[in-house]
Request: fold
Amino acid sequence: MTEDEQLIANFVPLLGQMLALGEEQKGSHLTEREVIAIRDKAPCIMVPSEVAKELEEKRGFRDVNPENCWADWNQLRVEFTGRGYLPKIVMCLPATQASVPNLQGILAEEETDFEISDYDAAMVDAFEKADLGRGPSLTKLELGSIAEHSSIVYILSDNFPARFAVNRAYHFLRVGSRLLEAGAIAMKCESSGIAHSRQRWLELAGQAERGADGEWILFWSALFDAFVQFPIVLEDDFYSCGMHLLGKPDVIVSRELMQQTRKTESATDSIVYLFEVFCLYLLAECEDGTFASGYTFQPDLEWPSFRVVWEECTGYDQDDLFYNPYGRWRFTSVDAALG
Reply:
């Protein structure tokens, strides 16, 4: 080991296992104070970073990051405890009866679970309400085609942990594009409430395929645009839904804070920019599990910094497809007191 090599805490048993045991003994969710107390008492040895990486690769999953134990525990909690609900991708594609056999053949090739239902009179309204909140992609002609559907194909993933999220999301992006090319009319993600036209989904699938060769901003931007709906308004908050499908917490900010921060701009435009920059930073640049509650974030030099604090996902039942078990990152004033 060189003098400059970083030493990493290696917990035996794993910190996640100790926290899961603590929750089982308590019989309910641990508080932040309890998580930190268990971390501080848990036995560990300091090993070189390369050794820590080898140990993680050997066991096939990572432990809770002790430097970010509260937010990271909540991201890994369901996986370690086996209690709660992991994300599940459900996509809805209206189609004509004539196209269904082709679609079934593709889904069999892709080994993707699916269900088929009959005509639904509410489908047009559902797609129109779920169209991209920051720029609709469905035209009146396409909404008319949806109105004429005779069948609905639902494709479904398993429930998956965060470490498998990128593979699941990319698979569904790619499979969805094949189905749309084979005759499906449009695409709606039932797990985040976002809808896309055939053209828009095919563009995103092509972008992700190009980005998969190493242009990771392109790749992650395509997945983000495909699966994440925002800005959603609830009372005085704006938030996103769908980051759980990419293995991350969602984001939330108050209307008041945005009005104080960007007084001369549209609040919606500012929120779209803030959410996009931060989420793509988490997805494409920030090492998994390292962004901690209380860190500051500045979108660019023309913006002030925010203090970003982890909080639980509220407003949805835990078995709701929209529910994010990894919580939310709330943007607050940089001067806000930490809890």
